[in-house]
Structures are given as C-alpha cells and as structure tokens.
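User: quick one, fold this
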Amino acid sequence: MLFDIGNVIVHFDHSIAICRIAPYCERPVAEMLPKLRPLNDQFELGKFDTSEYVRRAGEMIGFTGTEAEFIEAFGDIFELNQPVADLIDELSAAGHRLCLLSNTNAIHVPFFTKKWSGVFRHFDQAVFSHEVGLMKPDPAIFDVTIELLGLDPSNTIYIDDLPDNCKNGAAAGLRAFQYSTDRHGELLDTIASFEMER
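Assistant:
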C-alpha cells in the first residue's frame, strides 16, 4: 500500500508557522503565505537546501530571527491523524508492505518522522518530492515511484487526499483512493475488499 502523508497520516496548517514567526517579520501576516508559496514549491522540488530556503524565505518576508527559530516554527505544523495511525499499525501487523509518496521537504521529513517514529517505522520505503525532483500531480512521479519501489500498480492501493493526485495515480495503474476524515470508513471497506481478493 502506498500512502500520502499530508492530510492522510498527519494534518497540517501552514498558518501555524506564519503566526509563530510573525513577531520576527516585517511583512503583514496576510501577505506571507502567498509570498512564500512559489518558494515553498521550489523547496519541495529540492532546488535548494534548508539553509538556502531559510535565507531566501527570510529575505522575502523580512524575517529577523535565527535559522533555528525559523526551522522550528516551519516544522511544527502537524497533527497526527490517529485513525490512520491505528490503521497503519494494523496493516503492518497483518504483514502488508507499506510505502510513502509525498510532496514534502527537508525540514518537514525529519520533524514528523522523529515525532511519530512509532508510526513511520512501519514504512518500508519512501519517495519524497524533494529527493526525486518531482511533485505530484506530475504523472512522472508516479512512474518513478512505481519503478523505485518495485510496485505492482494493479495490486497497490494508493491513498491520497487530492483529486488530481488520485487521478494521475490511477492513470499510472494504481488503485487510488481519495481520502478524507469523513471517508475513513470507506477506506477500511476498500482495504477489506482488497484483502479478500488476495
């Protein structure tokens, strides 16, 4: 099974980081996220390392704090989705191979994999956008993921929250499921049906 991370395993809110760094910034809070969004995409594509990202972001928003303060604020924006965490425990115990495919960056990965190490230890392999230089929903990242992880797409449930990601994952042959918290029961039913086929 192939899991997305954001809004599947963990929920996230970038505004949390903005509120934390606002006292150290010259720009109004309302301007910061739109200003940083293109830079964040480049960071998630691995175009530059953490120090370079912090430097560039700091220049854009007039950040006057330290690199460590920025990284801490930027990293701690997640909340564990406990029902999915419990499901991951169950799937691992049942012997399923679990892998990750996520648009993420070099600040966020160390944060959530350390904070919830008990959850992320169940994953056999991962494809992160900043490591492969591709981002969902680019069809190429699904082809790369299937090859790197050695997946049989027709035998792999892919769980993601965004429709375009699911659409292109399905186009690559994966059995895509669009997740939301109110569809958790449907996900369990989908997995149960999948297990009956095996």
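User: anything notable?
Assistant: The mean pLDDT is 96.
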